[in-house]
Amino acid sequence: MREKREKKEELSLREDKEIREFLKFCWEKNPYLKAYPLQEWELAYEKGKLLFSTWKGFSFFRLNKEFKNYPTGTFFNENLLVRGYPSIPRIYVLKTGLKRYLSFPFYAEEKIEGYNVRLIKINKEILAFTRRGFVCPFATDRWEDFLPKLPYFFEVYQDYIVCCEVAGPENPFVSEWPPQVKEDVNYFVFDIAKKGTGEFLPVQEKIKVLEKFAFNHPEIHGPFHPEEDYEKIKALIRRYHQEGREGLVFKPEERGTRIKYVTPYSNLTDLKVVFPYLGEVEPNFISLRLIRLALNLFEFEEFKEEIYQKLGENIFEEVLSLLKQGQALEEVFRVRFKKEENFLALLAHFKLARVTVEILEREWKNGYLMVRFKKIYPRATQFWGNKLEGWGEVD
């Protein structure tokens, strides 16, 4: 037993040495890394901010936490650096928020309910990277079904990446999706960004690219003025609420601050979906949605009666039903893959992220591996279970 432990420690030390040597090699070759001394990158690695990853022979580092002026999700090797997608401030009141952050001209793009990936060509393969810098096996597997001209795009725009939302009822990560996607998933391209700098194409140029390469994309409205077009934007939010859509992202024509705003519908749905899984989410998740709803109603008084009626039902109906079943709290997901190796890579990703899954069905049908699986949430199960068993807590 002692000999095995010593061999494991020796292997770990050897791997650590090789990773440090690779980091030094990347720093020497990649000009973007030299903005900071090698010692600072090494310190980020030692503190767990910078992690080493691989995907089918492609080795890279990703930032698990913000480092200097590089956001979480930034990834790089010796040849490239892709900045993490920047966080966008959320405004709570349209009337004051628009004029505080924006000036003419700006655009309003539909905010799609899904998960964010960045598509990039590396060597001969197009890979999808998640918000946190992981390679997403699912989005890597399926992009060809929805963005067939993507290889041509990368021939023309070799120094750029494609930012998009993967959304639909058959995705492996989120249990909400836009109403216009009835089955499977779709890809919604919302930005084109430059490698290294992360600079986005201006909106008008982006629209031309979307049309040229037939990229599916969110609705884009504008240009707008923050005060003169307030009622038009308010009407958009009203329509999106009634249609069950998430909200809007406001973007200046070129550089500048971006902001986002979500509909009352989105806040109500978040509460319904997440409340049963308290213990798995941040404690302030619920209170933030309630604050958003209160300020939604401050600006959209016409929705008061509807929200007063639905709020209690959305919060309590689902959790009461699940608790009465007396089982572990879980969610069922459906996905389809073109390649089984990518499905296996997804399972490995779940294991790395410590997500407990159980495969319920798995069969090939019409050229796709159709999978139904459930995610089991032990912390949420314990959160409610302790209370049902009579345990108390100091609050």
| CATH H-tier superfamily of the largest domain | DNA ligase/mRNA capping enzyme
Overall radius of gyration: 23 Å
Query: What oligomeric assembly is this protein in?
Result: single chain
How many helices? The count is 12
Query: How far is the first residue's CA from the last residue's CA?
Result: 46 Å
Main beta sheet = 4 strands, antiparallel
CATH architecture of the largest domain: 2-Layer Sandwich
Count of strand segments: 15
The overall pLDDT average reads 94
Strand content: 15-25%
Low-confidence runs of at least 5 consecutive residues: 6-11
The computed structural class is alpha+beta
Q: Which range best describes the helical content: under 10%, 10-25%, 25-40%, 40-55%, 55-70% or over 70%?
A: 40-55%
Question: How would you describe this protein?
Answer:
This protein has about 400 residues and is an alpha+beta fold. The chain folds into four domains: about 20-80, Nuclear Transport Factor 2, Chain: A (Roll); about 95-260, 2-Layer Sandwich (D-amino Acid Aminotransferase, Chain A, domain 1); about 265-325, Up-down Bundle (Methane Monooxygenase Hydroxylase, Chain G, domain 1); about 330-390, Alpha-Beta Plaits. Helices cover about 40% and strands about 25% of the residues. It has twelve helices and 15 strands. It has a four-stranded antiparallel beta sheet. Strand 6 (about 115-120) and strand 7 (about 125-130) form a beta hairpin. Helix 4 packs antiparallel against helix 11, helix 8 runs antiparallel to helix 9 and helix 8 (about 265-275) packs parallel to helix 10 (about 305-325). The model is unreliable at about 5-10 (pLDDT under 50).
